[in-house]
C-alpha cells in the first residue's frame, strides 16, 4: 500500500515546540529573580506559558507514528519497528547521556570521574541532564506503540475511544500518585503523558477529518487555549506571590486543557504558513527539521553562557542575558546542527 502524503506542517509544529523548550530552559533562573520586579513577572509568565512543549512533542510522536503506520500495519512488523526506532533513539540517548555526565562534572566541579553504577541509574531515569527524561518517555511509547496499533486496528471501540482511554489512564495515574502513594520517577513515565499521546494517535488515524473539524471550531479552540492558559499561569502567579492556596489538581486540569488544545491551533497555523508560501514558514520548517539536534545540544551552550551571567542586582543586564540565552541556545544549536549535517553529507559524498 502506498504511503500517505507527508505532513509538512508538522515540522512547523516541531519548531514551535523547540522554541518553547528554549524559552523554558533559558528563563528558568530568571524565575528566581526578586518577587515584585517586572523582570520576574515577565520571565515567570513566559516560562510557565511554555510548559506545553513536552506534551506537544509527545502529541507529535503519536500523530506521526499512527499516521505513518495505520494503513499498512501488521502485527509481524513489531520487531522491525522496535529495532529501527529504538536504534535511532537509544544510541544518541546513551552517547549524549555520557557526554552530559562528563561535561557537567567538568564545568561544575573541575574534574571528571566515572561511576558505572551511577551512570546506569542515570540512563534508566533520564537524569544525566535536565532535558533527557523526555527520551525515556519516548522509548516507553515506542515500546507500547505496536500493542496500541494492533488494538486500534482490531477494535473499533478501542480506536474510537483512544482519547478518553488516554485521559483516563493519565487521570488514574495522577490520582494514585497525588492522593495515595507517590510513584517513583512519575514525571519520566508514559502515564504522565498518555492523554497527549492518545490524542496524537487518534489524530494520526483521522488526520484530515480532525483538521477540518478544528478549522470549523477554531474560535472555540482558541478560547479554550486562552482561558486554560490564563487560568494555569494565573493560578501559578497567585501561588508564587502567596495570594492564594490552590489544590494541585486544578493546575493539572488547566494544563491538560491548555496542552490538548494547542496542537490543533499549531497545525492550523502551520498549514496557513505553507499555503501562503510565507518565508516564516520556510524558516520554521527548517528549524523543525533540526529540532532533535537542537534539543540534544542546547543545554551545553546554555551552561557555558550562564558561566558569565551578570549579578541579579543589575536587572537590566540580567534581562539582556536571559534574552540572549534564548537566542544563543536556539540559533547557536541550530548552527552546530547544520554544520554537523553538512559534514555528514560531505563525508557520504566522499
UniProtKB/TrEMBL annotation:
Using the record for this protein, list the coiled-coil segments as residue ranges, or answer none: none
What are the subcellular locations of this protein?
A: Cell membrane
User: Where the protein is mainly located, per its record?
Assistant: membrane
Q: Per the record, a Pfam family?
A: Acyl_transf_3
Lineage, top-rank taxon, reads Bacteria
| Signal peptide as annotated in the record | none
Protein's name according to its UniProt entry: Acyltransferase family protein
GO molecular function per UniProt: acyltransferase activity
Tell me the InterPro entries matching this sequence. Acyl_transf_3_dom
Domain named Acyltransferase is located at: 9-337
Amino acid at each position: 500500500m502506498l504511503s500517505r502524503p507527508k505532513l509538512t506542517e508538522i515540522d512547523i509544529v516541531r519548531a514551535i515546540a523547540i522554541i518553547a523548550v528554549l524559552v523554558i530552559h533559558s528563563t528558568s533562573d530568571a524565575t528566581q529573580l526578586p518577587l515584585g520586579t517586572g523582570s520576574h513577572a515577565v520571565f515567570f509568565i513566559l516560562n510557565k506559558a511554555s510548559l506545553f512543549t513536552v506534551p506537544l512533542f509527545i502529541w507529535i510522536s503519536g500523530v506521526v507514528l499512527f499516521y505513518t503506520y495505520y494503513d499498512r500495519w501488521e502485527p509481524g512488523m513489531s520487531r522491525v519497528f522496535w529495532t529501527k526506532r529504538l536504534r535511532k533513539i537509544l544510541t544518541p540517548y546513551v552517547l549524549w547521556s555520557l557526554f552530559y555526565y562528563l561535561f557537567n562534572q567538568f564545568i561544575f566541579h573541575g574534574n571528571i570521574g566515572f561511576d558505572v553504577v551511577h551512570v546506569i541509574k542515570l540512563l534508566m531515569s533520564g537524569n544525566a541532564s535536565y532535558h533527557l527524561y523526555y527520551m525515556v518517555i519516548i522509548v516507553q511509547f515506542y515500546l507500547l506503540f505496536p500493542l496500541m496499533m494492533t488494538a486500534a486496528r482490531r477494535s473499533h471501540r478501542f480506536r474510537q475511544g483512544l482519547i478518553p482511554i488516554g485521559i483516563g489512564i493519565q487521570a488514574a495515574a495522577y490520582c494514585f500518585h497525588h492522593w495515595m502513594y507517590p510513584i517513583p520517577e512519575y514525571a519520566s513515565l508514559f502515564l504522565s503523558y498518555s492523554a497527549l499521546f492518545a490524542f496524537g494517535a487518534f489524530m494520526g488515524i483521522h488526520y484530515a477529518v480532525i483538521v477540518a473539524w478544528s478549522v470549523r471550531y477554531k474560535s472555540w479552540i482558541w478560547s479554550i487555549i486562552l482561558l486554560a492558559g490564563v487560568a494555569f499561569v494565573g493560578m501559578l502567579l497567585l501561588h508564587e506571590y502567596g495570594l492564594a492556596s490552590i489544590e494541585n489538581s486544578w493546575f493539572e486540569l488547566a494544563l491538560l486543557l491548555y496542552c490538548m488544545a494547542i496542537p490543533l491551533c499549531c497545525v492550523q497555523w502551520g498549514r496557513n504558513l505553507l499555503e501562503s508560501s510565507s518565508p516564516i514558514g520556510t524558516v520554521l520548517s527548517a528549524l523543525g527539521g533540526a529540532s532533535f539536534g537542537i534539543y540534544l545540544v542546547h543545554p551545553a551552550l546554555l551552561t557555558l553562557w550562564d558561566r558569565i551571567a551578570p549579578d541579579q542586582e543589575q536587572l537590566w543586564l540580567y534581562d539582556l542575558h536571559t534574552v540572549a540565552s534564548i537566542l544563543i541556545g536556539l540559533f547557536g544549536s541550530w548552527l552546530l546542527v547544520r554544520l554537523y549535517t553538512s559534514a555528514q553529507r560531505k563525508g557520504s559524498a566522499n
